[in-house]
Design a protein that fits this description.
The chain contains 17 helices and 24 strands. With 627 residues, the chain is an alpha+beta fold. Helix 13 runs antiparallel to helix 14.
């Protein structure tokens, strides 16, 4: 018999009754029924009930056992009586009557309960993450993550992609976030950077002729934590393809994502093709470039109806170049108390609105504090524009267009949540397409890149030469599900002359492009194919599939919100020997430059003194070196 187990704790069934078995695991719970002890023994695979008779020689040792002690039992599998069957356990029809017991790993008092899913503070859970991972719910999420990654690899390989690894130590790149820098011992004063993404390397693989690349790629960004973003590091399904159009990239994701989401969730996923929404339409209708399409509400423009309106607050906004947008909510008139409308106005103000108006169309007519300021034909125009039926309500926001989009997007989401309009049992995918290549910087009034400067402009060089910069669109796209952006992607600008011109429009001289992106430019001058790609976030996929509200729940060993690993005490101070090898002297943030310089000079003088003393000592002892 094996030293530790013949079966796992999730394996035994009624067919095993009568067998002598050995199982090992952690004591999940202990129950005393009149002297007979019942133990739920847990391992990675499940739980098995173990029965210990008081007559057993090892029975007395139970007094020093604690839950989460790691033990091994040898015993006989017996069928449970009908009334004691536990349908919640896969092993619930049997139990193991213990004949032998061995303690494999004793357990001290644990800082929080595992079996009871005790609500412990997050800092404590992260400090003892190895214990936290024993919880059924969290353990299953990490297992799900492994299975999702395995399925992603399988699907990508079946679609003709090959996995290649790209460097972890590389040079700093202009991805937009802060780099993590790694000092070089061999090259003092110089630094590697951990990759924010394998972007340049995967494009260079296309130039090298590898055609279809993918990688479950670790990425590193020194940025603040969010509910859907882990500080420090994250993983993405990185992919790139040669000789493709935007539609070819879409086809891969539209095959991959529904398959994976349907395989690992009971929620219904959109079939291909996914809805395609131009960026400007998304901002106009939903106030966001990552709209949650489970929410049926959208914004529409009613500015002209209010231009000459007696409701002066809105009329003046329109005359001053602003807009008025309406959100129609069907069928709630008469069903919501006045407090509902007051709360929505307060919410709008909390996200930046000066105020918000509304009109209820009831059987008795229009109801609203603003109706008395409006003409009958204006109310009729609103009714026609919104295809209003009795019981419908319109909410109105007025301000500069960009601000109305931002506030309206938040109001739309709040209405959807408050009124239960968002179906929690579906995944709604969409592509956001046709991003503008350039935008106007509000502070400098200059043309700048809108999103990704390395995207191919739609229309290529001709568009850059003949169109107004703000009218040029890029072959750039985002994949969004349930209001969460899984990834951005693009057809890349692989033509140096087009890249030079695009950067020229944004105010960059050719020499600046060659200085900052010389490696890529040089590669593109040596026969680069058209190529494009995308990189959906693995962490966000698993977060959605497991219904986790926080991304730390689906990462085995996450940082806290301050980018700290409380279990391993990282980041930590380096010792003096390490710092000297790397030629690094820590500088206190509060010290001024002059004080820092004085410290450096003092340290250099001390090193010279120590060196001189050592040389003198070596000379007096008659030692010398051939070096």
């Amino acid at each position: 018999m094996h030293d530790f187990r013949t079966h796992t704790c999730g394996e035994l069934r009624l067919a095993n009754a009568g067998e002598t078995v050995r199982i090992s695991g952690w004591i999940h719970s202990v129950r005393d029924h009149g002297g007979v002890i019942f133990i739920d023994l847990r391992d990675h695979y499940g739980k098995t009930q173990v029965v210990i008779d008081p007559k057993m020689a090892f029975y007395q040792e139970l007094e020093r056992w604690r839950v989460e002690t790691c033990v091994c039992f040898t015993g006989t599998v017996v069928a449970r009586a009908a009334e004691t069957i536990n349908p919640k356990l896969e092993t619930g029809e049997i139990e193991v009557v213990a004949g032998e017991m061995t303690i494999l790993g004793e357990c001290d008092t644990i800082p929080f309960q595992i079996a009871k899913e005790e609500a412990a503070p997050e800092a404590l859970r992260l400090k003892y993450r190895f214990l936290d991972l024993r919880r059924d719910e969290l353990h299953s999420k990490i297992v799900l993550r492994s299975k999702v990654i395995a399925e992603l690899r399988k699907c990508m390989t079946e679609m003709g992609f090959l996995e290649y690894q790209t460097p972890i130590l590389t040079s700093s790149s202009p991805e937009g976030a802060r780099d993590y820098l790694v000092p070089s011992r061999v090259h003092p004063g110089k630094f590697y950077a951990l990759p924010q993404a394998p972007q340049q390397f995967k494009q260079l693989l296309m130039v090298a002729g590898f055609d279809r690349y993918f990688q479950i790629a670790p990425c590193f960004r020194d940025e603040d934590a969010r509910a859907d973003r882990s500080p420090g590091e994250f993983y993405q399904l990185d992919m790139e393809m040669s000789f493709v159009t935007q539609e070819d990239v879409f086809a891969v994701l539209e095959k991959l994502l529904p398959h994976v989401f349907n395989k690992f969730s009971s929620k219904k996923s959109d079939p291909a093709p996914f809805v395609r929404i131009p960026y400007r339409e998304a901002m106009f209708k939903y106030g966001s470039d990552k709209p949650d399409l489970r929410n049926p509400l959208f914004m529409q423009d009613v500015s002209e109806i209010f231009r000459e309106s007696g409701f002066n607050a809105f009329a003046q906004v329109v005359k001053n170049g602003g807009v008025v947008r309406a959100i129609k909510v069907p069928g709630i008139g008469g069903k919501q108390p006045r407090k509902f409308y007051d709360d929505m106005i307060a919410f709008a103000q909390s996200v930046g609105a000066k105020g918000m108006a509304y009109i209820i169309w009831s059987e008795e007519g229009e109801k609203s504090p603003i109706v008395k300021f409006m003409k009958a034909e204006e109310l009729a125009a609103l009714k026609e524009a919104g295809n209003i039926q009795t019981g419908d309500v319109m909410f109105f926001l007025a301000d500069k267009e960009k601000k109305v989009q931002e506030i309206g997007g938040a109001v739309r989401t709040e209405l959807g949540n408050k009124l239960g309009l968002i179906d929690p049992n579906v995944f709604k995918f969409c592509w956001i397409v046709d991003f503008p290549m350039f935008e106007l910087d509000e502070e400098t009034n200059k043309i700048i890149f809108s999103h990704n400067p390395f995207s191919m402009p739609q229309g290529g060089m001709e568009a850059l030469m003949t169109k107004e910069p703000l009218d040029i669109l890029a072959y750039q796209y985002d994949i969004v599900v349930n209001g969460i952006e899984l990834s951005s992607g693009a057809i890349r600008n692989h033509r140096p002359e087009i890249m030079y011109k695009a950067f020229e429009i944004a105010g960059y001289d050719k020499s600046v492009v060659e200085e900052r992106f010389g490696g890529m430019i040089q590669a593109f001058k040596l026969g680069a194919p058209p190529h494009g790609g995308i990189a959906p976030g693995v962490d966000r996929m698993v977060m959605l599939l497991s219904d986790s509200p926080n991304i730390r729940e689906i990462i085995a060993f996450p940082f806290n919100q301050q980018a700290q690993d409380l279990m391993m005490n990282a980041p930590a101070e380096a010792d003096l020997k390490q710092l000297r090898e790397l030629r690094i002297i820590p500088v206190e943030p509060e010290l001024k430059f002059e004080e820092t310089f004085k410290k450096l000079r003092a340290e250099a003088a001390r090193i010279r003194e120590v060196t001189a003393a050592a040389e003198a000592a070596a000379g007096s002892s008659g030692e010398n070196s051939a070096n």
